[in-house]
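Subject: complex prediction, re-run

Hi both,

The earlier run crashed halfway through, so I resubmitted it with identical inputs.
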Amino acid sequence: MVTNLPAEAKAKWIKVMEAKTPEEKIRALEDFLSSVPKHKGTEKLRLWATRRLAELRDEIEERRKKKTGRGAVFFVEKEGDVQVVVLGPPNTGKSMLVNKLTGARTVIADYPFSTTQPVPGMLKYEDIYIQLIDTPPLSRGSGLINKIIGLARNADGLLIVLDATRDIIADFEELRGLLEDSGVVLSKPLGRVVIEAYRSGRQGIRFTLMGKLLNATLDDVRRLLEEYRIHNAHVKIYGEVTLDDVEQALFENTTYKPSVVFVNKVDLVSGVDEVVKVLGEKSGLPVIAGSAFTGLGLNKVGEALFTQLELIRVYTKSPNTDPSSKPLVLRKGATIRDVAESIHRDFVKNFVYAKVWGKSVHYPGERVGLEHVVEDGDIVEIHIRG
Ligand SMILES: Nc1nc2c(ncn2[C@@H]2O[C@H](COP(=O)(O)OP(=O)(O)OP(=O)(O)O)[C@@H](O)[C@H]2O)c(=O)[nH]1
Ligand SMILES: [Mg+2]
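This time it finished cleanly. Structure:
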């Protein structure tokens, strides 16, 4: 999709990647767009950049409202370990579901478009806190589409709520289409590339290879990044990935959101098993059939999200103390480096070795290095200099 950008545009992209604030991002993105030639091959990219600009402007507007206390704020600060946005067509029971799962005081009403603002609540699953956000209905024609999708893009995962008394297949496809139009995809790509570019430093290009490059070598990736003037970056490759995917990843224009579907109101209809099964096959997603009203299926939501978001828990400890009871919540594939980084910046700089107890090691207390991949339930003790 990223087709033969001129060198000038490539060189400008780095500024967008490095931009920290929405204001900086807007300036850099506008500058980048001005050097992207207008033709068929760049159409999608330009469309995406234009949408992204609108989202960024919205974000600034929201921040301003929040600061001045004037106007309603749509953005929800992350709390807990992960943030999951609850999405769905009008009147499917999103608000009742969030209320039942978290106790949050949502607006529940028997007419559509009753929710006009996002409302957060906290769902506890074992020792993990999942922040659920109730949202206004997502449907074509709603003036809030960009804002709601902005919330979804910013979240760690989605909980899609459908209404069993309606055509759940059609409703799902409609919703998936809406999200895809804005670059939010629900199915996991075969591979995934994450590129973190650093503004300064002399680390060069560092790779974490958790999969493989299909048609290229790491040197090809280096050369590609060189064209974009990226000299300091951490490139993480998961699954099977092509050089195009790497280039694509520079543009953050599609993002995968792990999602779970909740088919609500099954207390009102009988024999939904078959259509629920079909939806599962069509969507490739875990589907829970239940009822916010009777409570059926509610106990499955936490675990389904935990699994679908591929979360793992790591319990850190200091020498001679017990592991913390509150886990660090990370993604599958996380390494000791990620653990160290989430404790303190200096932990990576001063790292000597880590001792690990749990599934990822051969014996309790094994010594490992920064690139060691941790697993759910691991206990980690990091030893640093000084
Ligand atoms: N029978 C039954 N009714 C439900 C269930 N869940 C929600 N309802 C009812 O459905 C209506 C809509 O519920 P809400 O939770 O407001 O739905 P919503 O999806 O948040 O609606 P909007 O915010 O307008 O999109 C209300 O009258 C609820 O009482 C359920 O599982 N079973
Ligand atoms: Mg609602």
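The chain has twelve helices and 16 strands.

- K.
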